[in-house]
Amino acid sequence: MSDTAPIRLAPAAADDSVELERAELYGLLAALWLAPPDEALLRQFGVAVTQAPQQGGPLEAAWEALVAAMRATTADAAAAEHEALFHGVGKPEVFLYGSYYLTGFLNEKPLAQLRDDLAALGLTRDTDRGETEDHVAYVFEVMRYLIAGDGAGDDPTVHNLEQQRRFFRAHVQPWVGALCDAVQAHPRAEVWRSVAAFTRSFVEVETQGFDLLEA
Fold first, then answer.
1. For the packed helices 191-214 and 161-171, what is the interaxial angle rounded to 10 degrees?
2. Which of 29, 31, 30, 11 shows the shortest CA–CA distance to 21?
3. Which residue among 67, 82, 145, 153 is least packed, with the fewest CB closer than 10 Å?
4. Exposure string (b/e) for 152-190, b if CB count within 10 Å is 16 or more?
5. Residue 70 DSSP code
C-alpha cells in the first residue's frame, strides 16, 4: 500500500469522478495528520481553489477555512504546532490513535481488531513507520486505498463500496469525531483546528453517504 495518494489541492470539478475526489481528500487528510506540511505542500495550498464548485455544499466553509489557515502559516510554524500537539516529551497533548478514544488506553482491543480486518484485506503495516495502524493517518490511507487502489492489479473484491462501508463504520466513524473535538478544544491548535474542522465535515459527509447506501 502506498504511503499517500497524489494530492491535488482543489475540490473536484463537476465532471470529475466522485470516487477520485473522495480518494484524494482521504489522501490529503492522511498526509496532514501524519506530518506537518512542507514548503511544497504549502505552495500547493497557495494556489488552491478556495471555493467549492457547488456553492453552499457541506464542505465549502471548512475547505475555505483550511486553505486560509495553510496560507497564513509557514513550514516552521506548522512543524512547531504539530510537535507541540502530537509529540513532545512524554505524553502528547493530543493522541492520534483510535484505541485511545475507544478505550482510554493505547494498543488495546480495537487495535487488534483493526489488524485482523487489515489482514483480511491483504494489508500489513509498513515496518518503516513508527506509528501503529490505528493512527488516524493510517486509517485514512486505508480508506483512500479501498477507494482508489494502487494500480491495474487491484482486487475488485477489496476495492468496492461494501469494503469501504465496513471499514469506515468499524474504524473511522466511531472515534474520529472525538479526535476532532480534542484538537479544536486545544488552546495551542491553530492550523490543526482547521484540519480538524475539515476532517469532521468530511467524515460527516461520508457518514451520510454510507447511511444512504444502507437505506
1. 130
2. 11
3. 153
4. eeeeeeebeeebbbebbeebbbebbbebbebbbebeebb
5. H
In degrees and rounded to multiples of 5, residue 141 shows phi and psi of: -65, -35
Structure confidence by residue, pLDDT tens digits, 32-87? 999 999 999 999 999 987 765 456 688 999 999 999 999 999 999 999 999 999 99
Q: Which three cell numbers stand for residue 97?
A: 490513535
Q: What is the pLDDT of residues 83-118, one digit of tens each?
A: 999 997 788 999 999 999 999 999 999 999 999 999
Look up the pTM and report it. 0.89
96 CB burial (10 A radius; 0-12, 13-18, 19+): buried
For residue 55, the 8-state DSSP code is T
| Domains annotated on the chain, with CATH | 18-214 (1.10.3480.10)
